[in-house]
Amino acid sequence: MREVNAKQITEVVRKLCIDSNYYLTEDVLKALDEGEKKEESPVGKEVFQQIKENVRIARTEQVAICQDTGLAVLFVELGQEVHVVGGNFNEAIHEGVRQGYKDGYLRKSSCHPFTRVNTKDNTPAIIHLSLVSGDKIKIVLAPKGGGAENMSTVIMLSPSEGIEGVKNRVVEWVKQAGSNPCPPIVVGVGVGGTFEEVALTAKKALLRPLGQKNPDPQLAAMEEELLTRVNNLGIGPQGLGGRITALAVNVEMIPCHIASFPMAVNLNCHAHRHQEAVI
Amino acid sequence: MSEPIRLKTPLTDGDVEKLKAGDKVLITGVIYTGRDAAHKRLTDLLKEGKPLPFDIKGQIIYYVGPAPAKPGHAIGSAGPTTSGRMDAYSPKLMEIGLKGMIGKGMRKKEVIEAMKKYKAVYLAATGGAGALLAKSVKKAQIVAYEDLGPEAINRLEVVDFPAIVVNDTKGNDLYQQGMAQYAR
Fold it and tell me: Which class is domain B5-182?
């Protein structure tokens, strides 16, 4: 067994909170460059320029890209040969979020659903844990803003609707979301599994680097078709009209029950934030 | 692209009536922040017949919950939040003199109708460009509801704050127009 101190987990999570809110990954920067080139609407081009200038300011001045620094969503792959010592694993993560959001001057956006009273330290974090082989801990932290998250859905389709049913629902969903989720967006689609697993699958789809196709040729073709159809809606950057409504559509699929055909759409804004670290 | 129109707050009926959907504007002066929690409190005060914590006549409310300011900064990242959450409250505020709203995302039909009726406009700022938009904010001061944290009402002094007119006083909607122009 390899021992990892809980304090080290806290420190890594703290840094991931800050880095993910200050910096975008290379694939997203590239997608924004390409989007700006392809955009035909003058207002849309201007929005792309503002978005890129905003990213530059955030990086150089070390401030949050967006004031909505999200709930901290973590995907943790815990190696089964790791023994966490010196504290509770979950608490170590929450403490990292607490410190990161304070030290990084990030907004605390977590509240009681009924009273709306803020928890004031952005905890609890949303933690998705999976046990894997090996003696490492991989942590992906993806801050998720409310605007795009609100424009997400799970639909329990009838199996008779088939692949066309899924595609049509995705396009309809993006159309009704319109300007709300801060386009140009990234569309995460999950298909299969169960009610709860399909939502998680759609969220995981958002983590795949932009520009990287699904290895399954049928799903890769589906992603390409959906991107074209979504961009043909004309919603455009910030919904002001234009060619680029989405930077990418990522689809992930898992088997489902013979009676079921679940699908989920999880949208993300152009501040498509996530950073990862391995301990 | 047309040159942006310069707006100075507070706004008059005349100021807003000359704006049309698609116009770019640069706002200078005082604007107030407010999200749904603050809007609920404001409209509760009105229901009770009590005065608001600031004079709303001719003012603009910016739908934003800023990030905390770093030392030496006037404000943290400060981009718009989704405006639809304020739809339930906005017509009442326009009725008593609110002239402008800054946010992002679509407004309900009732809100667009209220803009026609009470002469007010809805402006969009670029969502997710909070670091850039914060540059236009020179001073921020809490005027009410400090307990709401990022949702407190702030009085912002802004210079050349960039926005675009989405809904004007004639009922035009840039989101509809833009989408129709580029849909295939």
Answer: alpha beta
